[in-house]
Large ribosomal subunit protein uL30 (Sphingomonas changnyeongensis), 58 residues
Amino acid sequence: MATIKVKQIGSPIRRTQDQRATLIGLGLNKMHRVSELQDSPEVRGMIRKVQHLVAIVD
């Protein structure tokens, strides 16, 4: 299955608890951390929820 790399570019400070939990679910909780995940609709939805805090890395 395909994978997708996600990098955290925004801080979770002053963000809602559900956005913080989504970042942790993606394996991100510190700035500039990169996580490699399986490309699934569930992961895409989590990325969309915090799209202002993450970037997709090639």
